[in-house]
Amino acid sequence: xxxxxxxxxxxxxxxxxxxxxxxxxxxxxxxxxxxxxxxxxxxxxxxxxxxxxxxxxxxxxxxxxxxxxxxxxxxxxxxxxxxxxxxxxxxxxxxxxxxxxxxxxxxxxxxxxxxxxxxxxxxxxxxxxxxxxxxxxxxxxxxxxxxxxxxxxxxxxxxxxxxxxxxxxxxxxxxxxxxxxxxxxxxxxxxxxxxxxxxxxxxxxxxxxxxxxxxxxxxxxxxxxxxxxxxxxxxxxxxxxxxxxxxxxxxxxxxxxxxxxxxx
Length: 264
Description:
Blueprint: H1 2-20, H2 27-45, E1 48-52, H3 61-75, H4 80-87, E2 89-90, E3 95-96, H5 101-104, H6 107-115, H7 121-128, H8 141-150, E4 153-158, H9 163-173, E5 179-181, H10 194-203, E6 210-214, H11 217-226, E7 229-233, E8 248-250, H12 256-263
Parallel strand pairs: 1-4, 1-6, 4-5, 6-7, 7-8
Antiparallel strand pairs: 2-3
């Protein structure tokens, strides 16, 4: 038995030496490398997915939507600043605020929110439909998705935005996803677990094998409620203090591939 174990260790060491082009005389070094191999093997055996929020995570929500919000609010029969406040838009900084309804809620919820304050949700939607919105990506989306897939992950999008806007973003960037659930799909909405569970169902993956990546409390709360891992990013409306309950907070989604290498 002892001879068999010694022989196995020598074979493993010879294999590693041949692969790395140097001598590893330490058993600890061999064990370290073999553990890395085992981790990679286990990852490939368990299908996992990165689920991305869209606005504030993959695209610059402020640069993308601020011009449209200004145009729509100026066309409405209400004071601009009243509408900005209801939608969660700071006209001085040209940025959406933490907790912005326009950034975090689906269209139905936004319309109901406006209606509750005496503003026509139907008119707001009609004016929004006249706007030509050009998504401003936060990173090279093709490269990001390619890197994530190369690490063995599927790629999905979970957004509160309507499907037509989400699909327009994918078309502009020239990318595809393995699953996408949008705010107007009727499959629940953040911060509940329902839409993320719908993503898991579409992918055929357990919720605990998903990583929810987003910029707002709705994204993180949705991930936590579904039992998924969570990654917060600081490129949208969320402040470090409001998304600190995520598993980790990264400066940008561009930092995700390196984090995946270190933590999965």
